Amino acid sequence: MILADSDCAIDYLRGRAVLGGFFVTQLMNNQVAVSTITVFELLFGAQIRGRFDVESILARVATLPVSEVSARLSAEEGSRLAASGNRLDTPDLLIAGVALEHGLSLVTRNRRHFGRINGLTLLDPD
């Protein structure tokens, strides 16, 4: 199982995901989870733009909540980054916390942000 960042799901919904690529293969094999933060981001974006059938991808993935454990992991990493002058947006911190709690690799194109999280393994969606 892998955890997908919002950018992978958006690429898939827009028809920009690489067919036969890592993310699409994992999705077709029911090996993708998303955090509740990603669910929010997808639904919010779709409601604002009115473009995507978000339910088509949500039906294919497991949804993992932001638990107390993932919130604590997110806060630890967020405070560490802030102390070094490298703040990270709260949604990204929470997504990373969910991945860390469950020991999942994160599939994302956003290596610039997520690459700063200690202990987080990143995978390319293609």
**Structure annotation, total helices:** 7
In order across it, which strands form the biggest sheet? 3-2-1-4-5
Helix content: 40-55%
Q: How far is it from the N-terminal to the C-terminal residue, by CA?
A: 16 Å
Q: Describe the main β-sheet briefly.
A: 5 strands, parallel
Strand element count: 5
Shape: globular
Provide the structure class: alpha/beta
Note the beta-strand portion: 5-15%
Q: On the 0-100 scale, what is the average pLDDT?
A: 95
Low-confidence runs: none
What can you see in these coordinates?
By secondary structure, this protein is α/β, with parallel strands linked by helices. The chain contains seven helices and five strands, in the order βααβααβααβαβ. A five-stranded parallel beta sheet has the order 3-2-1-4-5. Helix 7 (111-114) links the parallel strand 4 and strand 5 (122-123). The radius of gyration is 14 Å and the shape is globular. The chain starts with a strand and ends with a strand.
Question: What would a concise description of this structure say?
Answer:
This protein is an alpha/beta fold and 126 residues long. It has helices at residues 6-13, 22-28, 36-49, 54-58, 68-83, 90-102, 111-114, and strands at residues 2-4, 32-35, 62-64, 106-107, 122-123.
Keywords:
126 residues, alpha/beta, 5-stranded parallel sheet, 7 helices, 5 strands, 53% helix
